[in-house]
Design brief:
The complex is a heterodimer of chains A (359) and B (299). Chain A has 359 residues and is mainly α. Helices cover 71% and strands 0% of the residues of chain A. Chain A has a single domain, classed as ABC transporter involved in vitamin B12 uptake, BtuC. Chain A is globular. By secondary structure, chain B is of the alpha/beta class. Chain B has helices at residues 4-7, 65-72, 95-100, 118-125, 143-161, 165-183, 199-211, 229-246, 257-263, 281-285, 288-296, and strands at 25-36, 39-50, 54-58, 80-85, 88-89, 103-106, 217-221, 249-253, 266-271, 274-279. A 6-stranded mixed beta sheet of chain B has the order 6-7-8-3-9-10, with helices on both faces. In chain B, β4 and β5 form a beta hairpin. In chain B, α4 runs parallel beside α7 (199-211). Classes of the chains: A mainly alpha (359), B alpha/beta (299). The interface between A and B is medium-sized, with 30 and 38 residues. The structure holds adenosine-5'-triphosphate and magnesium ion.
């Protein structure tokens, strides 16, 4: 009963085109954001910040990037890990070469560099689709990781194996990178940055550029008939997607793991992010967050829930269970609900609108 | 219908007597031949489409009608022949270039963007008309190109921020699309994902998307296939209205002879990739070759 748009009449197209046309949604999201920003840093235990919320935000950004390419533009990619590595190594090189530059600018430049790499590896998409494109992006994944491992220039010829991300500040002297920064500061920094980038993604997909991506995804022939240039649409999707993924890789190295290493961005990472958008919802901004939350929380839930129930599982069992649940869910979502958790959320809201009446 | 082609006279009847209201030829195809490997889909086809007319293309299954439309909007590249559009001989082009020149199209099998709502489909049709920013024309060599790139980059930024010019343009174009929605009477399905719509409505949405391009030449490939009588009447009325109100030139493929006779100004008949007849509906209807090949034997 409380969730209705009754009485909320839209008097302009602008109001109808808003991100959240229903008032309750808008209020809800503002409360969530306010709570995340003002309350969580003070009440959440360090463990939560470091092992759940920070990786969740970084994964969300990576999933957002892949969702733009795969969910919105229909171009399957298995190169996510490689592009994250680009962002990490580019920002490491930039941050060490220009120590006085604001870290935000470093991340921006690293993202732009990754966008360029993405366009380069996106070129085959002009000729090939689906499975073959996936194989081409897989080649990108292996090539990029090989390159970062092979040439010690990327790690400033560091003799030791461990390359720590240098500490850098954003606002005045608040450190937000490296292991020495406080988790609260890192969390707030990530929350603001990822929210801002998500807003940009949302704006893109409800503007011209987003429509050209979706048109290519849904029916590339008809898209071209309408005047969309397939090359421009696909390459812009690769660029924007890689930018987001690149920034997420930089954030991974600088704010989460604190070290820059190609090992973190192997092919498994690519699949992990792909699973996130399949479970969360292809072609839904919100789905990227839901999927990331799901995959970050699942192992923790598998660790704690059996414990609470009084049947402790061994570490191996948990690892296996995790894979089994992933597999089952992915099959379920691919077959039953390709729009993932985001769509289930939507259906739930539609039901709520009618509640308590069944129709 | 095995041996019809041998009975077809090389140049069938068809005297062109366009009515007064038509203008110059908007599009002329001359001696178009198109083959796929060994299969000759079109052989030496010539005809023209006059400004503001409704031109029907008919013929039995596999006659090459769809292939002809594909040639016109740049999908297929004929091995032989020329196409003159708006007085200029057209060089080989891609479909998106044809779109930029004002040629819109609907498909025999509905080709909507299934994941999007009706309104988003129509808004996508408006893509070429949307400009958040326009670069000023200076006429200085090189500078214009740089300005255009700059405007393109700024345009992209306004889309990222959904701010200022972008919001204004979205709203302005939305208003235009709503006019089309009203015109085609699809208000109730604005926000419905098109995949959930019944076939007849999908065809209508596809027409709406084509109209959003404000085309000068509208190519319709069997817009009424699979419709019931009522839906056909609606669609015929829409096509006539588009033609009259916006002065849009229409080229239309249709199997329903009643509809063709009712709404078209001139008809070109294809059979086995050859032109069989060309003329006013009544002339074509009484043409011996057409009756044999199409009306008589095939049905
Ligand atoms: N891309 C293609 N590759 C190979 N052959 C093709 C191709 N497109 C069309 N053809 C062939 O060209 C011939 C003409 O086909 P077209 O689709 O133009 O016929 P049509 O008149 O539109 O028929 P219908 O009434 O069934 O739609 C057919 O024999 C078809 O098989
Ligand atoms: Mg056809």
């Amino acid at each position: 009963m409380f969730y209705r748009e009754a009485g909320q009449f839209k008097t302009s197209y602008a109001a109808d085109q808003a991100i959240y046309p229903i008032r309750q949604d808008k209020i809800g999201i503002l409360i969530l954001f306010g709570f995340s920003l003002l309350a969580i840093p003070f009440i959440a235990p360090i463990y939560w910040l470091n092992s759940i919320l920070i990786p969740f935000l970084i994964f969300s950004l990576a999933a957002l990037g892949l969702n733009i390419l795969t969910g919105y533009c229909g171009q399957l990619s298995l190169g996510t890990g490689g592009f994250m590595a680009c962002g990490a190594f580019f920002s490491y090189k930039l941050a060490t070469a220009m120590p006085d530059t604001n870290i935000l600018i470093v991340f921006l430049l690293a993202g732009l560099g990754t966008a360029l790499v993405g366009v380069l590896f996106g070129l085959p998409s002009l000729r090939i689709k689906g499975f073959y494109l996936a194989v081409a992006t897989l080649a990108a994944q292996f090539f990029l990781i090989w390159m970062f491992n092979k040439f010690s220039w990327w790690t400033n010829h560091s003799p030791s194996g461990v390359i720590s991300a240098p500490p850098r500040a954003v606002f005045g002297d608040i450190d937000v990178t490296s292991a020495s920064a406080s988790p609260e500061a890192k969390y707030v920094f990530l929350l603001l940055l990822v929210s801002f980038l998500a807003l940009i993604a949302k704006n893109m997909v409800r503007s011209r550029i987003g429509r050209s991506w979706m048109a290519i995804r849904d029916m590339d022939i008809a898209a071209e008939i309408i005047g969309i240039r397939p090359m421009l649409a696909k390459l812009s999707a690769f660029a924007v997607s890689s930018f987001f993924i690149g920034v997420s890789g930089a954030l991974w190295a600088f704010t989460y793991s604190g070290s820059v290493e190609a090992l973190a961005f192997e092919i498994n990472r690519s699949f992990e992010v792909l699973f996130m958008i399949i479970i969360g919802g292809l072609g839904a901004i919100m789905g990227s967050f839901l999927g990331a939350a799901f995959i970050v929380l699942l192992p923790i839930a598998l660790d704690t829930i059996p414990l609470l129930l009084g049947l402790p599982l061994s570490v191996e069992t948990v690892a296996h269970l995790r894979l089994i649940i992933f597999g089952a869910l992915i099959i379920f979502f691919l077959i039953v609900e390709p729009h993932g958790l985001a769509r289930l959320w939507q259906i739930g809201k539609e039901k709520l609108r009618l509640w308590p009446f069944p129709y | 219908m095995n041996d019809i082609s041998s009975q077809i006279p090389a140049e069938a009847a068809g005297t062109r007597q366009p009515e007064r209201r038509f203008g110059e030829p908007l599009l002329t195809v001359e001696n178009i031949s198109l083959s796929f490997g060994g299969l000759q889909a079109l052989t030496d086809i010539s005809f023209d489409i006059l400004e503001q007319e409704i031109r029907a293309i008919i013929g039995p299954n596999g006659a090459g009608k769809t292939s002809m439309l594909n040639v016109i909007n740049g999908f297929y590249h004929p091995q032989k022949g020329t196409i003159t559009y708006k007085g200029n001989i057209r060089r080989t082009m891609r479909p998106h270039m044809a779109a930029a020149q004002g040629i819109a199209r609907t498909f025999q099998n509905v080709a909507l963007f299934k994941g999007m709502s009706t309104l988003d489909n129509i808004m996508t049709g408006r893509l070429l008309k949307m400009h958040n920013l326009r670069a000023p024309e200076t006429g200085v060599f090189g500078l214009d190109q740089v300005l255009r790139w700059g405007a393109g980059a700024l345009d992209f930024v306004t889309q990222c921020l959904y701010w200022g010019p972008n919001e204004k343009e979205e709203t302005r174009q939305r208003a235009y699309c709503e006019e089309i929605v009203d015109f085609l009477e699809i208000q109730a399905i604005r926000k419905t994902p098109v995949g959930r719509l019944p076939y007849g409505l999908q065809k209508r949405v596809e027409l709406a998307r084509a109209l959003a391009m404000e085309p000068e030449l509208l190519l319709l490939d069997e817009p009424m296939a699979g419709m019931n009588v009522e839906e056909k009447e609606d669609m015929s009325r829409f096509i006539l209205d588009v033609n009259e109100e916006f002065g849009t030139t229409v080229a239309l493929i249709e199997h329903d002879m009643g509809v063709v006779m009712d709404i078209s100004d001139r008809v070109v008949v294809l059979d086995y990739g050859r032109k069989l007849a060309d003329g006013r509906p009544d002339e074509v209807r009484s043409d011996r070759g057409v009756i044999d090949a199409y009306l008589g034997v095939a049905h």
